[in-house]
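Morning, I've got a small favour to ask if you have a moment. I've been staring at a protein lately and its backbone has me curious. You're getting the sequence in one-letter code plus the fold written as tokens. I've dropped the whole record in just underneath, so have a look:
=====
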Amino acid sequence: MKDLVIVGDGGFAREVQWLVERINNRQATWNFNGFIDKDTSKDKVIGDDNFLLNYENEIYVAIAIGNSGIREGIYNTYSSNPNIKFANLIDPSVLLSDKIQFGKGNIICAGTILTVDITLGNCNIINLDCTIGHDAIIDNFVTVNPSVNISGNTHICSGCNIGTGTQIIQGLTVRKNTVLGAGAVVNKELPANCTAVGIPAKVIKIREDSTDA
């Protein structure tokens, strides 16, 4: 079994612990050591960032933090220690083909379906009961909240946060750092660094770094 810690100590971190238990119930894979958090007085928290950065043995990490920017910062910081590996955690109930390319550090929760020729980068969170269609590309540090439907031939660029119940029509690109409100229906291209809501999704805010692709 491989040693594993979960970064974060909130509700999603506890859901990821449950996911790990479900994996181990199917096949003993992970030795869960505890949580990593800045408040080391919390129950089951075994250390903070420095604990991992100075860790001298191989250890796998799951970053269970929904905020894409924070997750990216943690990933970049931890990558300085070659002993830290980033675990792909896939719930046993997930339906997926063998034609999927995985990066590292992805968390895919129960009830999700991934079809064929899908590419996932690093440290994406695909939450409960989502669908991802053929030839979709999901870059890095994307957060897909529960019950999202991502159609085929779509491209979700890095840093996006896809709200619960969102539907994304086939063939579209969701550009970098886009935030989609819960229940949005995306039927056209949207600019980077925007917040969009509604049916169909309309831009309500563009952040200052909107020149990013």
User: Anything to note?
Assistant: The longest strand covers residues 30-36. The mean pLDDT is 95. The CA atoms of residues 4 and 85 lie 9 Å apart.
